[in-house]
Description:
The protein is α/β, with parallel strands linked by helices. The protein is built from eight helices and twelve strands. It is globular. Iron/sulfur cluster binds at residues 41, 43-45, 48, 50, 53, 103-104, 138, 164.
Amino acid sequence: MSLTTLNHDRAAAGMVYVYPVVSRRAGGVSVGVNLNPNNACNWRCLYCQVPDLKRGGPPPIDQVQLEDELRQMLTAIVHGDFLASQVPEAMRRLNDVAISGNGEPTSAPEFPAVVELIGRVLADFALLGSIRLVLITNGSLAGKSRVRAGLRSMAGLGGEVWFKFDRATRAGMRLVNDSASDPERHYQRLKIVAGLCPTWVQTCLFALDGQPPEQAEVAAWLGMLMRAVNEGVPLRGVLLYGLARPSMQAEAERLSALPEEWLRELAGRVEALGLAVRVNV
Ligand code: SF4
């Protein structure tokens, strides 16, 4: 089966932990490492694209299998014909390895060991420093010492973190992330993470029942960013996401994409704070 930008099926490669994604947006291939093969997360975001999402954490990670799968995948991409046979010509390059997947990756107790494992494998393929290593996280577990250890290892490998901060009010986090998280505590976690590893704030914005986020929500979110700037939190910038792919949650029909101009106008307000912004629609 040819993999396209629309074919993000994590089972497409027939592996448990490792999957390829061809991204038109990034113009290349990303190798994903999924630490939640049971589709379990401690949050339940309205826009989440994980099918059959359930609450919880991952089963024990078989690190031998994970390493074997990662080596197989990189061998096929770097030394084999994966790119030529599976990827449209304009996108035949390896962009990154992303610790992401079907739930919150840092909820795996093995998270720090997995970071080290990935570093070892990338070094063996002479890829350290030449491709990106990314952790995509909701940040909710950043207070845990094992998560901080993994983040220090990520930094040592030249990696970066995409930290989810969709809304900055308690009601907004409850609505959008189905999380009881307190925005102040989440902000403190952001500070911890950004202090340990280069960090982007990642935010998904969409219309709910045809209505864009309320002005008070937008103001609270911008206020959080302004505070980070004022307090010298070393953010790389902000990744603004629209609704690029359909939600797989029960509320999917209530969600719709915002006009691109809406996102671009907000991006301008973020830039005015002195932060870099990437808009992904
Ligand atoms: S944190 Fe990520 S995996 Fe978890 S529910 Fe939200 S979007 Fe889905």
